[in-house]
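The instructor's notes for this session suggest beginning with a concrete chain rather than abstract definitions. Hand out the sequence below and ask the class to guess, before any prediction is shown, which regions might be ordered.
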Amino acid sequence: MAKKQQHEAEEKQNNVVDMAEFRRKQFKLKARSVIAWTVLIVILLVAGVIFLHDYFNKVYETMEVTSVVDWKPTTGATILPYGTDFVSYSSDGIHCTNAKGQDIWSFSYVMQDPMVEVNGDYVAVADRGGRNIYIYDRTGMIGEISAPSPVQMLRMSAGGVVAAVLDDTNITPVYLYYHDGTTISYFRTTMSQSGYPSAIGISDNGRLVGVSFLYVDNGRITSRVAFYNFGEVGKNETDNFVSGHEYPNELVPMVEFLDDDTAFAVGNDRMMIYEGSQRPTSISENHLQDEVRSVYHGDGNVGLVYYDKDGQSKYICDVYDQKGEKSCSIYFDIDYKEIRFSGDQMIIYNSSSCEIYTVKGKFKYKGSFEDSVYLMLPGSSPHSYVLVTEGGLKNVRLK
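After discussion, reveal the predicted structure:
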């Protein structure tokens, strides 16, 4: 009996020692794992910092052609970006083409002065002074709208809502349609009450419409930027009107939306930023010292281009964020055809050359094209692009 108890005591003691050893080994393994993960995280952070430093500060010297696809433009066609694809149109038809040079869809029409609006997956086409509006998405035609009077201005939201300013004898109606042709709502304006609409913009979701009206008040020209809400908030308001802003002695020929609740307008001596998804209010005004030559916007940025009167370069582009804060001033010399914001890039180009900067003003690339370029689109990877040229569709990348 005593031997049995002694054996059990020894076995118990051995078990205690084994558990202590197990815990010690387990602690060592955990410590090694923590150290290994810490080292890996530090390596990844350092690599990330190096990559970002290189990404934001690297200046590229050449543009390498990676592939060329056969494609020929229609004579006299205008070409517009359509996501990673593009549309080309003229007075007798419109085509949607992908980056491989393949027609996604093609439709014929006869128009004297075609107006084409592209936003998101939707394309709207109408003849200025005509009554028909044709709507397309990536599958082809999805709707046709018959307006009650001639169409004078046309806008398309990214969500597929069409805003059309019509022309009537004594009034100027503004209609909103779904892409299938269904009328959402409309309101009428008159010169005596509102003035004449000189610009119109629509939010991506189609809920808000901004209109710049021009009228004469006691002998002086005045502009009024009005916002209309076609959601729940605006349906109980007269003509869906929810907010308005007066600008005496000002011409405001441009009203645009940066997103669903941020809009901007540009006048002859100021740029205004409006914020609010229901009743937009003015949050910023930037007074402009010189005459604006052109305005571009995209990805939450607004670019105002002026002639450089100081002679440092031919042009200056002041870039603003969606709060109205100036991000940078970019000086450049090429006689640009287009300026496009894409992610953190600002792409300036004409048919023969391009310059690329970040939206913070860092220079990235300057070079010439081998063929005449109609359109320069961002590619599928950073610093890659698709050039729509006379010699075909060229996929290129910066090196």
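Then share the key points. The chain has two domains: 1-57, 147-398. Residues 1-57 form one domain.
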